[in-house]
Automatic annotation (TrEMBL):
Protein name: CbtB-domain containing protein
Organism: Halomonas binhaiensis
Top-rank lineage group of the source organism: Bacteria
Length: 45
């Protein structure tokens, strides 16, 4: 079973990736994460 620290690191990494892709100007990266961002109420446009 993973420790709480490991789980927190994975969650933090996932959130950072999600928000980083939200600010990238590439339309391919934007479109790849579009539905996921909207499901977390991240305004992307």
């Amino acid at each position: 079973m993973a420790s709480l620290c490991q789980q927190g690191a994975v969650v933090l990494f996932g959130v950072l990736v999600l928000y980083a892709v939200g600010f990238l100007p590439m339309s391919a990266a934007h479109n790849a994460a579009h539905d996921t961002r909207h499901s977390f109420v991240f305004p992307c446009h």
